[in-house]
Design goal:
The protein is 44% helix and 10% strand. By secondary structure, the protein is α/β, with parallel strands linked by helices. Strands 1, 2, 5, 6, 10, 11, 12, 13 and 14 form a nine-stranded mixed beta sheet that branches. Strands 7-9-8 form a three-stranded antiparallel beta sheet. Strands 3-4 form a two-stranded antiparallel sheet. Helix 9 runs antiparallel to helix 12 and helix 14 packs parallel to helix 18. The two termini are 25 Å apart. 50% of the residues are buried. Pfam families: His_Phos_2.
């Protein structure tokens, strides 16, 4: 423990060598350097979770088996096996949002979306820059780099598995999204075919979801559920739900009229305990037409806003709203005729029945077949109150986001639902900072003993050591980038738990939350050197401010906008002791490895005057290691 405390303290006094570069992807003030990066992504575009249209239609949007096999090549998914001698754990319940292979499944569009995201991240993290403090008009402390010294990218251009730590929920779409991102981050030609596969850790699904649906809820999860129900029972919540009820009614009617949705039941919350939506809707009760959809009375039940939002978003993303609206208006025009007896009514009823396959036909052709010019006009009439507009979709998605933020911004709920993941991220940040501080100190000692050339040689030797196959078991000492492939709710939950002032909108497919651990020259001193580490969060490339009443209250100012000292976050979230233990474990592991530190390799590198042959590694500084509480489980 004493060693861990010493390392955490040393982080706040780390030497100026860490202030020589800047994050390749976002603006940095003078002296700031990225030492570790965690990204939390939402999966790519998917088919709707709610069964809508036909399975055949959505199956046509999915990648082929061959495409999925190509994505999975070079990766392996690890799930925790039961410990020897331990009683068998209860079988995990299948999460209601996991998907069935057609619905809730990553589409071809989603694959390309995540591949492009990986390519963008690669370009950002590989960008070479002139990163000395002097070149940016900043003072350079003792041991600073010479002006104009070029810095290599944050990650290596050629895959070095020790630089990456990969996590995903155990959902096919998130695992495949991560594989697609990796195909852009390290495209063909940047991986060794003979190297061991990259490990995707899918063992921590429950901690990555605000509503994990475990087979046996923990006391924390039961308390969170009770508190969520209390929030939804508030007068403010009920008033907002009542305000939105007419929109839900109108949109649900359009979905039913168009035959996009076979039954309203799929969008109704089964009960208040399991569903995140409680709005009553005043849907129309009527007898179903022969062969038509099953329409039910739902006036006393509750619409599932999350399901409604994801469905209309999927329909809009795939360009289906115009066709849906035409079908809904045609069906609305046919309803009076279908109610008439005789042959005219029978023909109208047959046409209504055929609209069940509306995505494969031209609704205006139905008007011509019936000889009814008014039907075609009705299908084209945007002023009629039938159909779903872009504004409707935006309002539904905005309301679904409001509901989540309303619940998760309650501090106790945020801590109960996202606390374990928050702790994992912060402990990982502390380990990354401690490792970077140790390497910076060793590099500075090499510089003092042999000058700048010795320091550069020591850095190169460390990079070469991290590139070696044996580095993969180094408990994260060489880790640079950590990726979590998760869900919209994961990102919303983290924004709430960290008390970040993010806009109350729903994270889009492929949304990316960045957690940056930075060495900041201005924290803890005014000598122009780097005296501490800070953490900042970005969503969509924009830094997020901390809200009042959170960890920013009383924290000392930093030299990085919207960033807080790492030590302040560890204390505020109550994980400093956990971080110290994790740092202790890392230091013990470092002591057992050969070469152990830059101090061990620097003399040899200095004698050579250059980096060892074949070294492709990233420059000095190492990044985030795996979280302390379950380090053994994460070491896959």
């Amino acid at each position: 423990m004493a060693a861990g405390r010493a390392s955490i303290a040393f982080i706040l006094l780390v030497l100026p060598v860490l202030s020589e570069s800047t994050d390749p992807g976002s603006p940095m003030p003078c002296g700031a350097r990225l030492v570790a990066l965690t990204v939390v992504t939402r999966h790519g575009d998917r088919s709707p979770l709610t069964p809508a249209l036909s399975r055949e239609f959505w199956r046509g949007t999915l990648p082929s088996s061959a495409e999925l096999q190509e994505l999975a090549a070079g990766t392996v998914v690890h799930r925790d096996p039961p410990e020897a001698g331990a009683p068998a754990a209860p079988r995990r319940a299948v999460h209601s949002a996991v998907g069935d292979g057609v619905f809730g499944t990553l589409t071809r569009r989603g694959v390309e979306q995540m591949r492009a995201l990986g390519g963008s991240l690669r370009a950002e993290l590989l960008a070479p820059r002139l990163l000395t403090a002097a070149s940016r008009g900043c003072g350079v402390g003792p041991g600073g780099a010479s002006a104009g010294a070029a810095e290599r990218g944050f990650i290596s251009a050629h895959l070095e598995p020790a630089q990456l730590a990969l996590f995903s929920t155990d959902f096919p779409r998130t695992i495949q999204s991560l594989q697609a991102l990796l195909s852009g981050l390290y495209p063909p030609g940047t991986r060794d075919d003979s190297s061991a596969p990259l490990v995707i850790n899918a063992s921590h699904t429950d901690r990555m979801l605000p509503q994990p649906e475990p087979a046996m809820p923990t006391p924390r999860q039961r308390e969170a559920r009770a508190l969520e129900e209390a929030v939804r029972a508030s007068a403010t919540f009920a008033a907002k739900e009542a305000e939105m009820a007419p929109l839900a009614d109108r949109v649900l009617r359009a979905l039913l009229l168009s035959r996009a949705l076979p039954s309203a039941r799929a969008l109704l919350a089964p009960d208040t305990a399991n569903a995140p939506a409680v709005a009553p809707i005043d849907a129309h009760e009527r007898a179903p037409h022969a062969g038509g959809p099953s329409m039910v009375a739902v006036g006393t039940q509750r619409v599932h806003w999350g399901r409604l939002a994801e469905l209309v978003m999927c329909l809009r993303e795939h360009g289906l709203l115009a066709r849906l609206n035409a079908a809904a208006r045609a069906a609305a025009a046919l309803e009076p005729a279908a109610a008439r007896p005789g042959s005219d009514g029978a023909a109208a009823r047959r046409e209504l029945e055929s609209l069940a396959g509306w995505e494969l036909r031209d609704v205006r052709g139905a008007a011509r077949a019936l000889g009814d010019a008014s039907l075609g006009a009705r299908a084209d009439a945007p002023e009629r109150d039938v159909g779903i507009t872009d504004a409707d979709v935006d309002a539904i998605v905005q309301h679904a986001a409001w509901r989540w933020f309303c619940v998760l911004r309650a501090p106790r709920i945020a801590d109960l639902t996202m606390g374990p993941l928050v702790a994992e991220l912060l402990v990982g940040a502390a380990r990354a900072a401690a490792a970077a501080a140790r390497d910076a100190a060793a590099e500075a000692r090499a510089r003092a003993a042999g000058g700048g050339a010795a320091a550069m040689a020591a850095r190169a030797a460390r990079a070469a050591a991290c590139a070696a196959p044996s580095a993969r078991g180094a408990r994260g000492a060489c880790e640079r980038l950590r990726v979590y492939s998760a869900h919209d709710a994961t990102i919303v939950g983290l924004l709430a738990a960290f008390r970040l002032g993010a806009p109350d909108h729903w994270p889009a497919y492929g949304a990316l939350l960045r957690v940056e651990i930075l060495a900041d020259a201005d924290v803890g001193g005014d000598d122009g050197g780097c005296s501490g580490f800070v953490v900042r969060f970005l969503l969509g490339g924009q830094p997020l401010p901390f809200l009042p009443g959170g960890p920013a209250d009383g924290a000392r100012a930093t030299g990085v906008a919207h960033a807080l000292p790492l030590d302040a976050l560890l204390v505020w979230f109550g994980v400093k002791h956990e971080a110290e233990e994790a740092v202790d474990a890392d230091m013990a592991a470092d002591a057992e490895r050969k070469p152990r530190t830059i101090d061990d390799v620097a003399p040899h590198a200095h004698a050579l005057g250059e980096a060892p042959a074949g070294g492709r590694g990233a420059p000095g500084g190492v990044a985030s290691a795996r979280p302390g509480p379950e380090a053994g489980r994460d070491e896959l």
